[in-house]
Structure formats: structure tokens, C-alpha cells
Amino acid sequence: MNKLLLVLLLLQFITSCDHKYKIEGISSVDGLNGETIVIKSYQNDDWIPLHSAEVVHGKFSMEGKADSALMAALFVGNENIMPVVLEKGNIRISITKAQISAKGTALNDALYDFFGRRNAIEMRIEELEYKESQMLFRGDDFDDIYTQLNKEYKQLTKELDHCVKGFISDNYENVLGLNVFIMLCAAQPYPVMTLQMENILKDAPQSFKYHPAVKEFISKAKENLFNLQNSRQTEQAKLAETQ
């Protein structure tokens, strides 16, 4: 009996170790020294604190246990500074003025590789405005400028769409796909269904489509569309009456 109990306790210990994660963070941002970094998880419409650590000489560390991968975020005060996936392994966080990253585990590596590719495309789109100024300064023909830059813009937005949709599609079944889709939704000024979102949802599995957060967004987007259509019909009716 004692031997059986010992075996069970040992198995429990091994299992608990199996799900441990350790976070080692470094920061070159002077303003973070002495600040408290808090890891929070979004649950039931609120951010719930999980761990915290003080930044001392540009370093901080935390550890915990996650039975399954959990999307969380690092906060300083009320500011959400970056997402991080809590999963088994050693997670290395780097915070500089130029960039932030979480590396060392499979999902964090995938997430920040995606952020890097997405940001690179977005930067190329932003550079088109500077390119336009250069072309105007050189005295290039206006029609030629419009034709060239419009072609480049369409190509880059197509690349960006492919990058985002491809990443979410590859991660439909884990926390990355769902949370990046939610980030996409949150980037809208108000809930509205874009063509990109429709394409993502069209190929998504049922478990993705019927997640509470996705269902809520779809419901609000449909409601906004209905209200917008009603508003337009009302305006058209009023305009017709005045004619």
C-alpha cells in the first residue's frame, strides 16, 4: 500500500513538472526598471492577474503551471504591452524600444515569427507614401505615379491578407488562430465583418466558428449591418419625400 502511494505521488510530481513553464525576461527600456510586470489572462470579460515580478537591473522572471496552452498578456500598470503564450518550456521575453518578442516555445516562436512577417509587410505599405513623395520630387508623371503605386499597394495588401489568413488557418485548432482573429476584430473601430474575416470563417472548423468570442463578434457585426441598412433606407425615404 505504501509502495503504491509512493508511486502515485511520484507520478503526480512528474505530471506537474511536465506542465511547468518558466519565463525569463530582459528589458533595455530604462523606464521599466523598478516596475512590476504582471501576466494576465482574459477570462469572463476581465483581465485576471496570474503572476507578477519586479524588473530589477533589466531582468525579471516568473514560473507557473499550465495544463494546456493559454494566451496571456504582459501588463505594466494598466498598459497591455505584449501577448505571450503560457505553455510548457522556457519562455524568453525581450523588451526593447525597437521591438518586443517571446521565444523559446513552439507557439510563442510561431506567434512572433508571424508578427515579424506581418509587420514587415505593413512597413512596406507605409513606405509607399514616402516613395510617392520621392517620385513627385523627381517630377514623374502623375498618372505613372498612380499606376505604379496603386499596383504595388494592391500586391502588398494581397500579401498581407495571405499572411494573416494563412497563419490563422494553420492555427485554427490552437490558441494562436483564435486569438489572432480576435486581435483582427479588435482592430476595427466597431464590429463589422470584412471580406478577409468572411474568408477566414468560411474555411474554419465548427469549434472555431462557435467559440463564444467569435459568435459574439459575428452577432454584433450582423446587428451593426442591419442598423446601417435601416439607417440608409430611412435616409433614402426622407430624401424621396423632399423631391
3D structure, described in words:
It is a single chain. Helices cover 55% and strands 24% of the residues. By secondary structure, it is of the alpha+beta class. Strands 4-1-7-8 form a 4-stranded mixed β-sheet. It has a 4-stranded antiparallel β-sheet with strand order 3-2-5-6. A hairpin with a 2-residue loop joins strand 5 (70-76) and strand 6 (79-86). Helix 2 (106-138) packs antiparallel against helix 3, helix 3 (142-170) runs antiparallel to helix 4 and helix 3 runs parallel beside helix 5. The longest helix is centred in the middle third of the chain and has 33 residues, at 106-138. This is DUF4369 domain-containing protein. InterPro entries: DUF4369. Residues 21-111 form the DUF4369 domain.
Key traits:
Immunoglobulin-like; DUF4369 domain-containing protein; four-stranded mixed beta sheet; DUF4369; globular; 7 helices; single chain; 243 residues; 24% strand
Helices and strands in order, then pairings?
Elements: H1 2-18, E1 20-27, E2 36-43, E3 46-54, E4 59-65, E5 70-76, E6 79-86, E7 89-95, E8 100-103, H2 106-138, H3 142-170, H4 175-186, H5 195-202, H6 206-209, H7 212-242
Parallel strand pairs: 1-7
Antiparallel strand pairs: 1-4, 2-3, 2-5, 5-6, 7-8
Helix pairs in contact: 2-3, 3-4, 3-5
